[in-house]
Write a structure and sequence with these properties.
The complex is a heterodimer of chains A (396) and B (224). Chain A has 396 residues and is an alpha+beta fold. Chain A has eleven helices and 15 strands. Helices cover 47% and strands 20% of the residues of chain A. A six-stranded mixed β-barrel of chain A has the order 3-4-12-7-9-8. A four-stranded antiparallel sheet of chain A has the order 2-14-1-15. A two-stranded antiparallel sheet of chain A has the order 10-11. Chain B is α/β, with parallel strands linked by helices. The chains are: A alpha+beta (396), B alpha/beta (224).
């Protein structure tokens, strides 16, 4: 049966090529839609629970750097204060801005061109500080480099580069401008290595907050802070906290519930731009796939009748059809991946909504299930209308 | 031995278009016989052949195949009928019934793919069957490129590849010229001389002449 299904792929080759093309298009659209959806929510999903609570996004307007940990004492029912620390360093003539990402900041994993993201539980690698760098052509994953801390106090430490962020990939930005209406999207930014003047290229280096605290003794705090309060905080206590923050020269630039609702609206608006057209195209192609399967099955009735007289049960032609469609669908998937890969190579990741991850594989599997179901049911519908005797009589 | 007793077949039973195709047929075909079934168009020849080949069912009577065991075909379920067609019957049709796009040997191997034989047996058995019909040197050729006579030889090879109990041929020379008809009938005769039971349905008296017994059907009944 498997051989017969496989062999079907090489008879009536034009029809099969059409099916392969259709299935490649179907898989490509499925991957495209899923990637669009996943990319839009990927910036928000690591923090959806975080921003579902009560809290403020603050901007430190003070003249001097202040330790945000002090806010625990100054505010009522503070659950968590999150911020990013940063400082300068250099190695072999290359300047770095070193960021200490805490657990909250590490929640979002940017797109890495190589290696792996940091883990709060593993700040060190055999005595060297684990670090992820922004894109550069001067370093590589696996390199160990000696860092010299800028500033009066100085200091040295060795870094092991465990990952490199893709050029123009988004990452959480400790500073940066606010853009109303975009929710959490406004707290991300990206570096473009090739956009910077060669003489002024600074590489961002991210290490865990623990490693940062161990190595640096003179640093800056991010001007943007996130203060999360306990769930049982009252409206009056929130208002009181807000007033205290203003008096302490902190600007309350956003509330968590506003970030949460704006994030959802922003994602929705992005999806509404793209998904309806893609979904409509997907449905049309699904119908087209079913149509070609139907035509193919009808055209193969005589062939299946021959199998019948040679000893095959009549309904087994549906299984042959399924096997044929499976092979064509897998071929289509490979073609879609190759096409997507070529597009990525030419235009770059940020411009092409094409990735192969768990969600995309799941969607492709669902499309495969659809194809297999159609490839079984449509031939079944046809063979129920005809018997092999009728087919032979029609021919003679 | 094939034993047919009071065989009946009615199409569209109970409807206004009801047609009684076979009316109580009785006959036997012994092992090693070459029998011709003749009759005018619409007499019931093809209906009988389809029943003998287990392609179609029947409404009354008995159809038994007596070889090592006795098989009553009417009592078989779909799975057993498929096995019966595969193991006991070889069918040759007027329009050859070959799969276009397949090679000669691929067509001959089709019954083997539904059999319980090992894959390692497929090619040797297929080549042996092709040798019997003189087509072994064209094993890899696409069947679309064969002449009518060659196609029918391939169909015969496919019919014998699984060593069935008998071969059914429905107007096997209907689409062939006189010379090729003679060649095809020679192939059948050779197979029969080697002990193969052959039943040929034909309206051609010259084909019927070459068989050792003739059964004439008219209006669904045996008349001679």
């Amino acid at each position: 049966m498997v051989w017969l299904g496989f062999r079907n792929c090489f008879t009536n080759i034009h029809r099969n090529l059409l099916q392969v093309f259709q299935m490649a298009l179907l898989m490509f659209l499925g991957i495209f839609m899923t990637t669009t959806f996943v990319r839009q929510i990927s910036l928000f999903s690591p923090y959806s629970d975080y921003f579902d609570g009560n809290g403020f996004v603050l901007f430190d307007c003070g003249l001097d750097a202040r330790n945000p940990e002090n806010l625990y004492d100054k505010l009522e029912k503070t659950d968590d204060v999150n911020y990013i620390r940063y400082s300068g360093a250099e190695s072999g003539g290359q300047s770095f801005i070193v960021y200490g990402f805490d657990k909250m900041a590490l929640g979002y994993k940017p797109t890495l061109i190589k290696g792996k993201w940091l883990s709060e539980k593993r700040p060190y690698h055999s005595g060297r500080v684990n670090a992820v760098v922004s894109y550069t052509d001067k370093l590589d994953v696996g390199d160990d480099i000696e860092m010299e801390i800028s500033g009066e106090k100085g200091g040295k430490f060795t870094v092991h580069i465990c990952g490199m962020i893709a050029n123009t990939a988004l990452m959480l930005n400790p500073n940066g401008q606010e853009n109303e209406g975009k929710g959490i999207r406004q707290y991300y930014s990206h570096d473009d290595y090739y956009f910077m003047d060669e003489s002024m290229r600074t590489v961002s280096m991210i290490i865990t907050d623990k490693a940062f605290a161990d190595q640096f003794d003179g640093y800056f705090y991010s001007t943007r802070l996130y203060v999360r309060f306990k769930d049982d905080i009252s409206t009056e206590e929130l208002e009181e906290n807000k007033n205290r923050l203003i008096s302490e020269e902190y600007a309350v630039i956003n509330s968590f519930d506003k970030v949460s609702s704006e994030s959802r609206q922003y994602i929705f608006s992005k999806l509404v731009d793209v998904i309806p057209i893609a979904l409509g195209s997907l449905i049309l192609i699904c119908i087209s796939v079913a149509g070609v399967v139907l035509i193919d099955s009808k055209k193969r009735l005589t062939q299946y009748s021959v199998y019948y007289i040679c000893g095959m049960k009549w309904y087994k032609c549906c299984i042959i059809s399924m096997i044929q469609s499976f092979i064509l669908a897998v071929t289509g998937f490979v073609l879609a991946v190759v096409a997507g890969g070529i597009m990525l190579r030419i235009t770059g990741r940020e411009k092409v909504m094409f990735e192969i991850g768990g969600s995309q594989i799941l969607v492709c599997l669902l499309l495969l299930v659809y194809i297999l179901v159609v490839s079984f049911l449509l031939p079944l519908h046809i063979i129920r209308k005809y018997t092999p005797v009728e087919i032979f009589k029609e021919k003679t | 031995m094939i034993k047919i007793t009071e065989l009946n077949k009615t199409y569209n039973k109970g409807k206004s278009t009801e047609f009684h195709a076979l009316k109580g047929l009785d006959f036997t075909v012994n092992d090693g016989e070459m029998v011709a079934i003749i009759g005018k168009s619409g007499a019931g020849k093809s209906t009988l052949l389809h029943i003998l080949g287990a392609i179609d069912d029947y409404d009354g009577g008995e159809y038994k195949l007596v070889s090592d065991t006795e098989i009553e075909v009417g009592k078989l379920n779909q799975k057993k009928l498929a096995e019966f067609r595969n193991a006991h019957v070889g069918i040759v049709l007027q329009d050859f019934a070959l799969v276009e796009g397949y090679s000669v040997i691929e067509n001959v191997m089709i019954p083997l793919r539904f059999s319980k034989r090992k894959k390692s047996e497929y090619k040797p058995r297929a080549m042996e069957a092709l040798k019997h019909v003189g087509m072994d040197d064209l094993a890899k050729k696409d069947v679309n490129k064969l002449s009518g006579g060659q196609k029918q030889r391939v169909a015969i090879a496919r019919a014998i590849v699984n060593d069935p109990d008998f071969i059914l041929a429905d107007e096997p020379t209907g689409a062939l010229d006189t010379e090729t008809t003679g060649q095809i009938m020679s192939v059948f005769k050779e197979l029969n001389e080697k002990g193969k039971t052959i039943i040929v349905v034909t309206h051609d008296p010259q084909v019927a002449e070459q068989c050792e017994r003739v059964i004439e059907i008219s209006d669904g009944k045996i008349v001679g």
